[in-house]
Amino acid sequence: MPITIRRAHIAEGSDDLVKVAKLDVALNKESFGNKCWFSAEGRVADWLLGQKNNGHPGLVLLAEEDKSPKGHVIYLMKENNVCFLSSLYVAKDFRGAGIGSKLLNCVVRDAKSRALSEVYVTPSKDSKPFYERNGFLVRENKPLVIMYLPLV
């Protein structure tokens, strides 16, 4: 089955909220182990709902195969005319199939349509090469790596 990418419906109790929360928990457990604050689905869901309720124009996209989630991206439009890529994750068994790049391209296309100046991310050590392959540049290297993709 082909992978489809669509905007997730983030609302209290929605199926999409549960799907995104499960994927984000998997991401955080891979990156940080069980010590991460986002190691429980309820906490991820609360954070997503809080972002929405606080007026942050963030978006969530789901990559699915036959309505089964295989990846997601969470991104926020910031006040200084930039887009912050909060989370991009593809399930282990589906990596290397271009799903992450497709999700990232959707974010870039959306940011360009809003005339934003850049997309930036604080990548993990493991994901840094992915962003480099997709044209991101390193802005800062200490204490966190910050990478950006200029859009103009």
Short description:
The protein is an alpha+beta fold. The chain contains four helices and seven strands, in the order E-H-H-E-E-E-H-E-H-E-E.
Distance between the termini: 36 Å
Strand content: 25-35%
**Assembly state of the chains shown:** single chain
The CATH architecture can be named as 3-Layer(aba) Sandwich
Query: What is the β-strand count?
Result: 7
Outline, from the CA principal axes? globular
Number of helices: 4
Rounded to an integer, what's the Rg over CA atoms? 15 Å
The first-level CATH class is given as: Alpha Beta
Fold-level CATH name: Aminopeptidase
Give the integer mean of the pLDDT values.
83
Task: Trace the largest sheet across and list its strands.
Answer: 1-2-3-4-5-7-6
Structural class: alpha+beta
Low-confidence stretches: none
| Total number of distinct structural domains | 1
Helix coverage percent of residues?
Answer: 25-40%
CATH homology group:
Gcn5-related N-acetyltransferase (GNAT)
What pattern of helices and strands is seen along the backbone? EHHEEEHEHEE
Structure description:
It is a single chain. This protein is an alpha+beta fold and 152 residues long. Helix content is 34%, strand content 30%. Strands 1-2-3-4-5-7-6 form a seven-stranded mixed β-sheet, sandwiched between helices. Helix 3 links the parallel strand 4 (82-90) and strand 5. The mean pLDDT is 83.
Search tags:
single chain, alpha+beta, Aminopeptidase, seven-stranded mixed β-sheet, 4 helices
What is this structure's SSE topology?
Layout: E1 3-7, H1 15-32, H2 41-53, E2 58-65, E3 68-77, E4 82-90, H3 99-113, E5 118-121, H4 128-133, E6 137-140, E7 146-150
Parallel strand pairs: 4-5
Antiparallel strand pairs: 1-2, 2-3, 3-4, 5-7, 6-7
Helix pairs in contact: 1-2
